[in-house]
Amino acid sequence: MFKRDGTISFLNKLLSINSPTGYTNNAVSFLRETIEDIGYETMTTPKGNLIVQVDGDNGEVTRGLSAHVDTLGLMVRSINSDGTLSLTKLGGPLTPTLDGEYCDIITRDDKVYTGTILSKSPSIHVYKDAATKDRDIDNLIVKLDERVESKEDVQNIGIQNGDIVAYDPKVVVTDSGFIKSRFLDDKASVAVLVSILKMMKQENVTPSTNLKFIFSTYEEVGHGAAWIPEDITELLAVDMGCIGLDLECTEYDVSICAKDSSGPYDYDMTTKLINYAKDKELNYAVDIYPMYGSDASAAMSGGANIKAALIGPGVASSHGMERTHIDALENTFELIRAYIRN
């Protein structure tokens, strides 16, 4: 049974933990503690991916399910002469949406400073191009909430090039069931997989095959699940479904992706998922995502000899201020439950 309140509670906690690509240890530690408290053993790869083994009725077959705990973010590219910070992207954030966002600057010795991401023309009363200036990464800076007026001032408080800049997710859950936040890609799917693990323990559900749950840490830069355990013969990536243009997916659906930028997903596996969704009378959509990649495509690009498919909750405004609905998480949960039982 899908537990809405528990899933949202976990998602809220996970969203509150900064985990840009390359800085995921705290989120993985929280995830590990949560999963071990449920009653599972975990292992962590040298790269930092968290893996959970669940034994099934057929111990000779192992299927994988993946979701990524890393998010978009920024990094200090350089320190400017006026004490502001120039930036470089971690992953592909929609940079115009970052102008005015509050952020944390995390140093190599774990100090955390706060600041604001701003356009280089931040005031309509001063700059003629304040409204029209491009908000690309080269025209955004961080203004620190510290008394710094020079590069040396910033260096003296311990900030240096390569420090992580994590911006505020701004989580809101409405009474009508909408979840508004950055980084629903892909923490919403992580929450769904954790709910699946809880359900199996609480309801004594044994999957039809062995399962390995993979929580990856570098998906946003393309190589999250480039390596997977060799006993996995089939991988189901659980990641956000896209919304817009001619796509059928909505914020209430589980998306089933037939093809993304890496090519088509396994025909038979995708067909089975569609049939499970039909049999369970789920709200679902089948779509093509030409500007998208997943952990499954990373695994295949890395040489994994597997079947692979991609599903996930519909998420609007991806890589910006995202939004989904609890119904999308429930439909995704129910499709995964059908998948692991067959």
Query: What's the story with the biggest beta sheet?
Result: 9 strands, mixed
For this structure, what is the CATH class of the largest domain? Answer: Alpha Beta
Weakly predicted, low-confidence segments:
none
Quaternary structure type = single chain
How far apart the termini lie comes to 17 Å
With helices defined by DSSP (H or I, 4 residues minimum), what is the helix count? Answer: 7
Q: What's the CATH topology name of the largest domain?
A: Aminopeptidase
Descriptive report:
The protein has 2 domains: 227 residues, Zn peptidases (Aminopeptidase), CATH 3.40.630.10; 95 residues, Beta Barrel (Elongation Factor Tu (Ef-tu), domain 3), CATH 2.40.30.40. 25% of the residues lie in helices and 30% in strands. It has 7 helices and 18 strands. A hairpin with a 4-residue loop joins strand 10 and strand 11. Helix 1 crosses helix 4. InterPro entries: Peptidase_M42 (IPR008007), Peptidase_M42_aminopept (IPR051464), Peptidase_M42_dom2 (IPR023367).
